[in-house]
Amino acid sequence: MKKQLIIAFAICVLFLSACDSAKVPPATRASAAAEALPSATCTAGLTRLDLRIGGGIPWPSIFSNTTSSTVRFTVRLAKSWFFGPARDIGTVTLPPHTGRISSSVVLTFLHTPLGVGTVVIEVRTDRTGAKIIGRCDYQLHLLAPLSVEVGTVLRPEKRWLYQVPVRLCAVEGSELAGVAKPGQTVLPGQLLKTLEDVNAKIWYPQAQIAFSTATDYAIPVIADPSPPSVDHARLGDLEVGGPSIEAAEARDLCRQAWQDRFPGRVGIPIVNARTFVFSGDTLGVSPGPAAGLYVHSRRSGSGLRGDDLCGSPVRLTPDDVSASMVVMVDQSRLTLVGVDGLTTAVRELAHELGHNLFLGHGNGFDDDGNGRPAGIRGPKRYDEYCDPAWLIPPQNLDNVEDQATPFVNCATSSSLMNRFASCTELRPLQVETARGVALVIPGTVNGTESPVVGFASPISRSRHLRRFGTPPPSREPHIMPIRMRH
Ligand SMILES: [Zn+2]
Fold first, then answer.
1. Measured in angstroms, how far is the CA atom of residue 438 from the centroid of ligand 1?
2. Which of 241, 221, 220 has the alpha carbon at shortest distance from 231?
3. For 240, which of 172, 178, 222, 312 is 20 to 30 Å away at the CA?
């Protein structure tokens, strides 16, 4: 069907040019021929485009080569709120006097930031150099997927996406950084695919949480905080165990690199190192909550904040999550595929992000039933941070409470937050905590559908000035307001 359309269009172009040459007097024919530039047809001016995540942003619908030479068109995505720096996204090559109808799109993913902003697709050719011969000009309103029905018949609940921003970085010397130096950027490679799976296979389906990145194309390379001259390890290796502060140093370098390259964009730093040294068999690290947020137990410093974390509703502030980060080893070291079809990298990143949403180690169940169930206000008593029995001494590794639920399999008795990140399940109590914490992470967008407030209206500048005494809102991306809902 598509082939027929293309052929039909090619014939049409040829036919029109034949008609033209028959009608146009010889004197003007030379100049008309000189102006017969290749073209790409798209929007007529700025066009609003409403999409839900997963939808595609159309390329120009028609490419037309009216010249007598073969033309190669290059399609470029300009810098945007959604995708980061400009980049070429494809080419179309057309023989002389032919055209093509295109149905290509730029896809959006769970990691594409929600919001409103312009998206410009520009087309150039090898015949016309820097001149833009076609352009799509969209004002994209990227919305969350439709809500998911959760809960029970008696207690139905519609759950919408909460999108938590992250900032990817690669330490110099890591496989991901390749030969790039600090200050440069590299493609996110497998790390982006891992993030995609973390969203699509684990966090979104179970908790309607996804992690977004402001650039899916160019991620900053940062310096090794302890270069080989200092730690005698290889470039890109970090020591993350015990009292080492290298993980925190790498986090700070990642934050700074993003501030330099993509100012104003926030998010949990995710640092890709080469590997870890002197750190046991650790594959990833992340900070948990301050001890004061733990429920009162023999953990020193616990219980100071009552049920701010270990209760519903969650009552935290952005200060409580200010240490957020994930530092993990190169993707190529995490390629083992489990029975669930997911790589170690996917489970590892999902697990560390769980710690950033203040989920402690455990099976996710209130095994001894000393707290309130998910969905009901009041104290929550489960897992490492929120059960008063805390961990088994003297190693302090496994939860006392979890001993009541012997491991049978992932589906019935464990969770993503077990110490080995060997399962992918998120339990209702974990989902409740994670969603409560997600909302206080700076930059998190609540995708709940509500009457839209504050979108720029299509009103002219002079008219806006006359009516309101101020210029219209800028075209800067507008983020939907976050509403606290528990
Ligand atoms: Zn862990």
1. 18
2. 241
3. 178
Q: Which domains does the chain have, with CATH numbers?
A: 1-35 (no CATH), 37-143 (2.60.40.10)
Residue 332 near residue 190, CB atoms below 8 Å: yes
User: In angstroms, what is the C-alpha Rg of the chain?
Assistant: 27
* CA 378 to each of CA 313, 372, 431: distance values in angstroms, whole numbers, following the listed order: 7, 6, 15
pLDDT category at 24 given cuts 50, 70, 90 is very low
- Tell me the CA distances in angstroms from 150 to 145, 160, 431, one per residue in order: 15, 10, 12
Which two three-digit tokens encode residue 46? 């700025």
CB 240 within 8 A of CB 247: yes
Q: Ligand 1 centroid to 327 CA: how many Å?
A: 12
pLDDT tens digits for 370-393? 999 999 999 999 999 999 999 999
Q: How far is the CA of 283 from the centre of ligand 1 (A)?
A: 10
| Amino acid code (one letter) for 290 | A
pLDDT reported for residue 469: 58
Kindly report the number of other CB atoms within 10 A of residue 91's CB atom.
12
Number of residues that this document lists for the chain? 486
310 vs 376: CA distance, rounded Å = 13
Q: Measured between alpha carbons, how far is 84 from 118 in angstroms, rounded to an integer?
A: 12
Tokens of residue 138, six digits: 């969209």
Q: Rounded to the nearest whole angstrom, what is the distance from the C-alpha of residue 417 to the centroid of ligand 1?
A: 6
State how far the alpha carbon of 367 is from the alpha carbons of 53, 111, 363, 371, 449, in Å: 37, 34, 9, 10, 35
What span, in angstroms and rounded, lies between the C-alpha atoms of 381 and 275? 36
Q: Which structure tokens are listed for 394?
A: 């003297």
For ligand 1, the distance from its centroid to the CA atom of residue 352, given in whole angstroms, is 6
Does position 464 have pLDDT exceeding 80, yes or no? Answer: no
**Ligand 1 centroid from CA 178, angstroms:** 28
Region at 300 (left for phi over 0; alpha for psi -120 to 50; beta for the rest): beta
Label residue 3 by pLDDT band (50, 70, 90). very low
Residue with tokens 């997911």: 342
